[in-house]
Specification:
The protein is mainly beta. The protein has three domains: about 1-50, no CATH class; about 55-135, Nucleic acid-binding proteins (OB fold (Dihydrolipoamide Acetyltransferase, E2P), Beta Barrel), CATH 2.40.50; about 140-205, no CATH class. About 15% of the residues lie in helices and about 35% in strands. It has three helices and 13 strands, in the order βββββββαβββββαβα.
C-alpha cells in the first residue's frame, strides 16, 4: 500500500470523507478534509505486502546459534524473530519511523526471552523474500500522522527533528496527558505546532 501525503493540515478540520474506488486490478482510497484531498492510497492486486500487519503467533523453534526464533504466524513461511526484536525497545527521544533509538542495557539471550510453544504478539517488519519468511518484532507500533502509539512501551518520546526546547516540552506535556495508561507515545515531526485537539484526534483515529 503506497501512501502519498498531498497536503499538511493547517487548521482543525471537522468534515472528513473517505472515498473508495475498486477496480479489477487495484483499489484506490482518498481521504478528504473539508473537501481537500489530504491522503491517497493505492493497493494493486498481486502486490499486497504484510509489513505492518500484527499477528498472534507461537514460537516453534529457538535457534541459539543466531540468537533468534522461528514463529508460526499463520502464513506460508515461518516468521523470523531476532532477540533484539524480542525485547522491549527503549526509544531514546526518537520517532522509530524517522530515526533510530537504542537499548539501554546489554541484550539477554534468546533463551531468556522466549521458549518453544510460547504465544507472542508480533508485527511484520520485513516482507518474506525467496525462501526466507517474514521478519517480525514484538515491539508493536501503530503510526498516525502526528503520533506513534506504542502498546508495549510505557513512555513518551519526541522526534529529534523537533529542536525547539519549548515546543518539545509543550508536546511532551500534551502527550503525557492524552496517552492511554500503560501505553507509550512518540510525537512525530509533523506534530510541531499542532494543538492538543489535533493530537487527540490523531490518537483516537
Amino acid at each position: 500500500m503506497e501512501r502519498q501525503r498531498l497536503s499538511e493540515r493547517s487548521s482543525l478540520r471537522t468534515n472528513k470523507q473517505i472515498l473508495i474506488n475498486v477496480h479489477t486490478k487495484e483499489v484506490r482510497i482518498a481521504v478528504l478534509e473539508d473537501g481537500e484531498l489530504v491522503e491517497f492510497y493505492v493497493e494493486r492486486k498481486g502486490n499486497r505486502g504484510i509489513v505492518g500487519n500484527i499477528y498472534k503467533g507461537r514460537v516453534q523453534k529457538i535457534v541459539p546459534a543466531v540468537q533468534a526464533a522461528f514463529v508460526d504466524i499463520g502464513v506460508t513461511k515461518k516468521a523470523f524473530l531476532y532477540v533484539r526484536d524480542a525485547v522491549a525497545f527503549e526509544f531514546e527521544e526518537d520517532d522509530p519511523f524517522e530515526g533510530t533509538g537504542g537499548f539501554e542495557n546489554e541484550l539477554p539471550s534468546i533463551e531468556e526471552v522466549l521458549s518453544e510453544g510460547q504465544e507472542v504478539i508480533v508485527q511484520v517488519s520485513k516482507e518474506p523474500i525467496g525462501t526466507k519468511g517474514p521478519r517480525v518484532t514484538t515491539n508493536v507500533t501503530v503510526p498516525g500522522h502526528y503520533l506513534v502509539l506504542l502498546p508495549t512501551v510505557n513512555r513518551v518520546g519526541i522526534s529529534r527533528r523537533i529542536t525547539d526546547e519549548g515546543e518539545r516540552e509543550r508536546l511532551r506535556a500534551i502527550a503525557s496527558e492524552i496517552k492511554p495508561k500503560e501505553y507509550g507515545i512518540i510525537v512525530r515531526t509533523a506534530a510541531e505546532g499542532a494543538e492538543k485537539e489535533e493530537l487527540q484526534r490523531d490518537l483516537d483515529y
